[in-house]
Design brief:
Keywords: Coiled coil, Cytoplasm. This is DEUP1 protein. It is found in: Cytoplasm. The chain is mostly helical. About 95% of the residues lie in helices and about 0% in strands. It contains 2 helices and no strands. Helix 1 runs antiparallel to helix 2. The protein is rod-shaped, with a radius of gyration of 37 Å.
Length: about 160
Amino acid sequence: MEANFSEMRNELQSRDASWRRIQLECQQLHTELLKIRQYMDMQNIQTKHQSSYVQLENKNTELSLLAQSQECQEELNKIRNPVYPEEQCHCSEQERMKTEISDLTEELHQKEITIATIMEKARLLERQLKMELEIKDKLLAKQQLLDFQYNIKESESTHLKEKV
């Protein structure tokens, strides 16, 4: 009987260790999510700065060319023509980054769902373990009471045998 209780305790300890591992994995996933969010924030800031810088640079170039002379219109057109393909390339690069950020956001969302699911399972396991532990403690107390009663009956029986 003691062996069964020992096995039950070992099983509960094993389940408790599993639950702790799940909690650790949840913490690691949460840390990873925070890193991804920081990376995404940095990417957004960097994209905004690059875009603003390129726009300012383009406007400064245009203004300086216009200020120099109205007669340089043909030259200005020659300068603008190569800028348009670069601008389109830049726009396509921005779209690619937006898509990448969107994908990372979706991945982050999926990981958050996974963490929530794992946490819920961990809570359920914890409740189940507590209930099983309570049942096993009650059974152990009952077994000890029965053993005590048995010992009393046995000593009474021995005492009566000696009298007879």
